[in-house]
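Q: Hi! First time asking for a complex rather than a single chain. Here are the components, and I think there are two in total. Is that enough to go on?
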Amino acid sequence: MPLFLSRKIMPLPPERAKVVGHGFVHNNDEYISHNKLHHKHTAIYRTNTKQKIILISAILLIIASFVINWHASLIVLVSIITTALFIDLVLSFFLIYRSFRYKNEFKINDKDISDRDKNPWPIYTVFCPLYKEAEILPQFVNAIKELDYPMECLQVMLLLEEDDDLTIRATEKLTLPSNFDVTIVPFSYPKTKPKACNFGLAKAVGNYCVIFDAEDIPQRDQLKKAVIAFEKSDKNVICIQAKLNFYNPNQNILTKLFTAEYSLWFDLILTGLQSMESVIPLGGTSNHFRTDMLKEICGWDAFNVTEDCDLGIRIYKKGYRTAILDSTTYEEATSHVKGWLFQRSRWIKGYMQTFLVHNREPFKGVDAVNFFIIQIILGSKTFSTFINPLLWAITIAYFVFRDTAGMFIESLYITPVFYLGFTTLIVGNFLYIYYYMMGCLKRGYFGLVKYAFLVPLYWLLMSVAAYIALAHLIFKPHHWSKTTHGLSSNFKNNSLSAKTGKV
Amino acid sequence: MKMKSRYFDILIVLLLTFVSICSLYFYYKLNSGLHLAYNDATSHLNISRRIFDSLTPGIVQVGSTWLPMLHLLEGLFTWNEFLWHSGLAGAFISMIAFILSGYFAYKIIVRLTEQRWAGLISVIVLIANANILYMQTTAMFEPLLIVCLFGTVYFMLEWIHNENLLYFIISAFFLFIGTLTRYDMWFILAGSTIYVAIYTYVKKRNYQYAEGHAVAYVTLAGFGVFLWLLYNQLIFGSPTYFSHNEFSSYSQQQELAAKGMLPTMGNLLLSSQTFFVATVLNQGIVFSLLAIVGLILFIADSRKRPSYLYLLVLVIPFVFNVQALYLGHSVVRVPFIEPYLNSFFNIRYGIMLLPAVVIFVGYLSKYNVAKFVIILAVIVQSLLFYSILPGRNERLTFITLKDTEGGFDKSTNEAARWLGTNYRGGLILVSSASSESFIFTTGVKMNRFITEGTGKYWEQSLNAPSSNAAWVVFFTSYSDRVGKRMVNNKDLESKYKLVYQNNTYNIYQIKDYTSKYKEPLVKYTIRKNSVYSPEIYSEDYLIMKKVSEIFND
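A: Yes, that's all I need. Here is the structure of the assembled complex.
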């Protein structure tokens, strides 16, 4: 789909929707989303007309200013980039400070659970979307069996794709518990996880529901904790996000750094956002919902490859809130660079999609603070992954070729911006490395603390992923780069305790 | 109960603020600029000002002679010309440091003894110390170092007590600030990191737990050291430039050693003796004795809570200063110790033990009997500090004030005042390495000076002053950096005339000055004062002298 051409999008006719589910006709193609979310809230297209005009005007303005005075234009550009990075640094600092300073998450203890055990537990629906993951299915079944939740109150929906014969056959061979429903999602485009979840949502009978990926191992009492958290929270809290982490951090350097990053994100950044009761970009799985409310806000955007992040923001914009639960779901960290790159590029592409979707009506449903947070979390943080290699190259050039290039580089920075940039370079990079350390300490991964010094290499990989993501956003926006699981060395060990032992 | 505790905290801060402001008023107003008596104070203010206001402003102006944190913090105020020239820019930083120090001392003692009144007594011990009350009005390093030490210790204790990582981080942060303030804190960094490693290992018997915490602690706390090495590498081409450049304390001490004026070098006993006396003179005899008793009791009690033994880092400044004297990196002269020939120099370094004295005396006050003894001690020590015993001279005489006399030069003041009252414009060539006090005392704007940090202006002007300068100022002995280059300088001889001369300075003015420069004369406002009463000593000092004589005999 060309980037700037707008084509009319029509909802599927009701009679057709009755047969295949809700969706759109776009450019003579049929897209099934299995929900009624309006197309302007979806990533079926990248930009609306207003955004296109702004984007084209900005590009023309930049080109014109470079033609008129390229040096002055560069100075302005450098100043804007430096200021944005500095603001990002300050916000991160603020969030992490708050995550330490305030009690931000639901902590449910054993006594709370045993007290609640006296009353019946509500029906809970567990969605598990699967695609070509036959080999990991037994682990998931085991993980669900190990859950401390009355099995008769649990509806587990295995959401399989119609064209995934391998997984369908594997499911047939397994003896599944009676509360497991195998649901075949009919073949249609887009072929994404959120579409499958929407399909499942329509059939969910639980008061609450949650998504687990196939390789997930939630802590045994997570569902009970989530129920208690919902019962203790205000009615406008319709989503509870459990923390995610990995059961294979020590597999190699990549998994160590990935684990450090997850610890930073879920244990510090999200809890910092929670302390401000602000918008929370949900993490891929272990998002618990009040089912009726999730249906009311039309479930997930089937066209967005980070539908979780999008949903988190949509929840906030609709006037509802998300809370963080002190319970962890352990996943498998991607251990191969290639697999990691594709997974990360999907995430970055999704963040870009979400950024564009929520900037179609940027001020609707958010106050100034949360508008600012959305711009930083989705915009500035993503943008920095693109710009980082360039800034590092400039820094290295400045010191290595100081005699020749030094004067020119200095001329691009007016004095206050130079100091701002220098502070961001030295203090900023230090702080970000330190945040990773703090994430590891807070999570209890003490052995990973020292690996935070290698994080700059990880950032480099993130930048590579960002450029792949940009290419994908342009050429195949709805393509879902599937992450391969089952590569962990202790994958075969299905025991939760064996996999989640602290490092 | 919680509210009461908060009110008590507020009262403590108000008390400290009140005392701090009274003290500033006393030295700034009533004694007309005594807060600027240290020449180093004016140097610090100048360096801070140059970051914004210089022929070549920038971070490089912090140089490498001193660690930069004080100058950077003073920059919050020195951008304002009045605050710079009045010295208030430095006083404000020191006063904030003093107030925070008192508050942290209070909180530490409350944590140790669980008694608010004991905490209050520790604050009284702090504010009864005449030396810190004076130092907190000056633009000197010591108050900042002291608050960093207090902050590091207080937040470490809080982390030990409630395991909130935020306190762990803040403790490391104070150490980070401290390591960029004075080298004493580099030793505290080592001590604290070792402590974190041992404490965490003993607590969990888990190597990774200990390693993780030690790495996280030293990464932030030691970041200042890393930055300083990086700065020296990037700007001066060597990460250890600060330690061996011609203005480093080591280089300066080597010159003294060559002249046989560094008797502590290689003499551990004399080094210890010198610093011990300096410490007692700064802390007061009575407080020092009580602190030793408090320290012994604290160690004896530590079996109940061995984790609090961390407080022993408070005595590390003693170890640091003794080793610095022994290795010849530092010089302290205490007049009544044999080799120093009645001279004062850097005795104020003994004030670094203030946190140790305040905390260990404060610790004593957990015993009810000791509370009364300490209150009595406060009264006696105050009398000794201020020398208002019957028959004494009414002048102020405690040691940090006496210590300022070593650097005071009356003729420098006179020469600077002369230039300040006759200045009508133009650039002034002068060596900042030798004449910071002169530069400050002139009251002329900083961007009118051509000094070592001004790059091409400096190089050009040393060869041909008239290329940039309307004034040339150097020592009458021609021993400073400008003077050395002005010997037989044809440009100087032909284009300038000598307009002022005294024992210390020559001031040359370019010919036809009055026709070229017509800026209006500025009313002279600089108030830099000195005690200047070498024959007067405090009771404290005289007692120590007597004790020392007995030991020498």
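A: Residues 1-6, 498-503 of chain A have pLDDT under 50 and may be disordered. Let me know if you'd like any chain examined more closely.
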